[in-house]
Amino acid sequence: xxxxxxxxxxxxxxxxxxxxxxxxxxxxxxxxxxxxxxxxxxxxxxxxxxxxxxxxxxxxxxxxxxxxxxxxxxxxxxxxxxxxxxxxxxxxxxxxxxxxxxxxxxxxxxxxxxxxxxxxxxxxxxxxxxxxxxxxxxxxxxxxxxxxxxxxxxxxxxxxxxxxxxxxxxxxxxxxxxxxxxxxxxxxxxxxxxxxxxxxxxxxxxxxxxxxxxxxxxxxxxxxxxxxxxxxxxxxxxxxxxxxxxxxxxxxxxxxxxxxxxxxxxxxxxxxxxxxxxxxxxxxxxxxxxxxxxxxxxxxxxxxxxxxxxxxxxxxxxxxxxxxxxxxxxxxxxxxxxxxxxxxxxxxxxxxxxxxxxxxxxxxxxxxxxxxxxxxxxxxxxxxxxxxxxxxxxxxxxxxxxxxxxxxxxxxxxxxxxxxxxxxxxxxxxxxxxxxxxxxxxxxxxxxxxxxxxxxxxxxxxxxxxxxxxxxxxxxxxxxxxxxxxxxxxxxxxxxxxxxxxxxxxxxxxxxxxxxxxxxxxxxxxxxxxxxxxxxxxxxxxxxxxxxxxxxxxxxxxxxxxxxxxxxxxxxxxxxxxxxxxxxxxxxxxxxxxxxxxxxxxxxxxxxxxxxxxxxxxxxxxxxxxxxxxxxxxxxxxxxxxxxxxxxxxxxxxxxxxxxxxxxxxxxxxxxxxxxxxxxxxxxxxxxxxxxxxxxxxxxxxxxxxxxxxxxxxxxxxxxxxxxxxxxxxxxxxxxxxxxxxxxxxxxxxxxxxxxxxxxxxxxxxxxxxxxxxxxxxxxxxxxxxxxxxxxx
Length: 793
Prior knowledge:
alpha+beta; ten-stranded antiparallel β-sheet; 25% strand
């Protein structure tokens, strides 16, 4: 069953059935003022931190499911019947309640019609603002006049810290008061401290407030919930709270002639009284939301439009053009800060997460990427490692590190990861290749600790040094605390083939830059250590697969003859990506992946799961079989498998993997998938689960960027280089033609790829503005402001 459809023209996903298998969410604003909203208006808002800046409540994983939220109640004053603009929480019979939710780029619109009243709520955070707006429209579609009471409701937190608000009730129930200020409810926390950052407001513009309530328990009534609050049944009674729980409820009574529409606007934020009043007054101009919505759309659509594809697969187009791209921006901006699974308690940016997330937006917003790369370089320790967790108040040059006991105490991360800094190499390479800004290598950036600074080139050298200074007994990079897979603990001197492949890849990237700088001695050094790593890795080939690594006691992990976990995905894909695999090894290992790991919903991270025969350090055993890292389909790895098959010219296989992991291909099987069919999740349950295909942990996942990279560079074959751009697709043989428009270094490229013979890969000819070029590199110097390019396969 499906619960909605993609509207690519408007860049929206439209939910048409409100009782979705889980809360299907969207993101509004930014971490300066962030809001998460579901298709039934559930969710929460916060200032700067989901953990320490929470404004309104949301009860995670609760029986009531997706409550509370941003509710607009409508009551027929003549019959006493009431409902909400969103289907929940009142939940009228669906055969009587027409509903749509339009999730767009940083806005959500919920539309409904019930009992002859059509209603609409637009939710958004204005661009660069630190408050949110709900614009309501109510229309009488009957032939008779209607008298209605409309009430906006929000439940405030009593304390900005999420845990304190939910747990330390002997304190938080006795620190708040609410006041009515003419057209808004003001909440004050610890009023005696007179702190303007401890004041919230919920206001109404465009209509007169006829009644109000600032006490949640008075609003809901005893033993009631949001579905049948006494404050709606009996009307609000102008009550505020003193201790207990705060809320904002503002009621306005309206009369509608037949066909008449009335608009009014609710505003929510954390501001002192004077500033709140000024913000609300602006919205007496009820046309303002339309202007602000247009600004939001223009901002986001202008970024998404930097690459637009047109292939025979509409689902592919929707994901590349809108939803995968938009999710990349959301993970880039929000990291893992707040969702319906991440409760906001993570106290910093994961190093590898954030550096990987950058890759997903480089082709759309390279300037944004550049700033974030600088930031992450400033979180690199002078020994070359990345800080495992970069604190939100990161102070470059003055940070403590895992070498300091205080860092582990503050962050919960006691040691370095083997892979963190190695993710800098593909990210920096993709940025320089996209922009041509090779001078970025000469920029000077502080290291995280001790006040030392170095060029970007020096930062990259230090990352190589860190790996080479931390080798295991065989000479491969030591496992340290963990590699990409936090559940693989090989021991401090254990060794990971995955990281060794990453190191070879990093050396190849850095060697190109060393050549440009005529750094001959360093080139010689890179050649020596790369040859050594490849030689060592050659001993890790096990017939038709690469092993996973070695424990520090020498035990081999991931042998073909192991009873459990004898096949691992990442070493196979990264052996191809790094170029270490020979052609024969690549074909054999990726065929083993398909045979032993592939499922209808993606490739499992390894198989069989650890159950009885796990090594000491295989932490994934804590999970049920075929779940998360224990033979689940860990979604981030799918992008690497897609890229590896594409690099081998296996267009059909790469596309098959893309479809298997694509949320859009589960739109008609949404009850199986459960989470949103328009964004990737963290993992999907594997083949042996009784719920195979069920996905979990929505939105904030590195899957967005890895699949985007696998799709753009792999399937579509769009591969920038310092001197220009190559288009070398690896597509399904059924695609006889596709096209794309891309903005590349300020120039427009209109590219048509022709595939009349159904090839999966290999380009025969490239024509640029009517002239056939030699080879496939489209040099930047040959490009005009607008270009017509044909690629023949």
